[in-house]
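User: Can you model how magnesium ion sits in this protein?
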Amino acid sequence: MGEFDLIARYFTRPARRAVVGVGDDCALWQPQAGMQLAVSSDMLVEGRHFLSTVSPQRLGHKALAVNLSDLAACGARPLAFTLALSLPRIDETWLQGFSKGLLTLADLHQCELIGGDTTQGPLNMCITVFGEVPPGDALMRSGAQPGDDIYVSGQVGDARLALEVFRGHLKLDAQHFEAARLRMEQPVPRVSLGLALRGIANACIDISDGLIGDLGHILKASGVGAVVTTDWVADSAAISPAMQSLGMSKRLDMALAGGDDYELLFTAAPDQAQSVQEAANDCDVTVTCIGRITAGQGVQVMDPHGAPISRRFISFDHFSN
Ligand code: ADP
Ligand code: MG
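Assistant: Here's the modeled complex, given as structure tokens:
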């Protein structure tokens, strides 16, 4: 099988909304009048962003999921994506699984694969997603206001927990490990929540590198500070049964600095609290209030008794880890 057969067999679908999809020099897309395009790229490199043990189907899912998560964080509706793929060799079993995971998630969000590039090389994939958002409605990192509540969607810490088990640093029983591993290998992008938070949230980001670090991006962009509580790490909807099997200190590490969560971290004025909960209910996801934006600078993490925790929660950084 050659490059073009591979593209035709695994990555070519009939165009739906696309004017021209895969097959010509460029895809063509007719933007909806008056809408802004939201564009984001995320690359996944073997050994860096995923382990060679991951099933190709879950990897296909994750490659798109992390990109859809960026659209979600902006409150943008997914439209289309391109896939740049570097493969060591043509492995049809791998390609079948990968394209199935990828295109199943794409169909779920009606996000069309409209083009890409395929080359031989180390296993590596880069997706660029395109979404749309009405002008002025995009959720930005820069809108947080002093007094805002800080929320996190879903559950945090599981992806890092699974990674630490893979690395042999922690042990979990089989059931908890499978649950945590699923969260690491097949994250659920919070697309509908992002859309529902338009006009409600003041600032939003998705958690990829770690909660405290990613919150830091909101604080810097908004020129504000934050106090983060930790009673929710002891007991809340944001902590899974797998996480609950850990002691508090490890839990804090995973929840606050773990990374790879792909949950939304957002702020909203206190008078929006009910709207936030309604949006979450409508999207079938929990949201947990984890702190408050202040007029200060930086993040202060409080222990469950309200005393400051001096220890730092350092996020993932590709060039300093
Ligand atoms: P060109 O040489 O003109 O850049 P290519 O030969 O790389 O085009 O690709 C042929 C067509 O297949 C193009 O429409 C391109 O967008 C598409 N394509 C290539 N690789 C992929 C892929 N991995 N997924 C989806 N479409 C792809
Ligand atoms: Mg060409």
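A couple of observations from the model: The mean pLDDT is 95. The CA atoms of residues 66 and 262 lie 7 Å apart.
User: Helpful, thanks.
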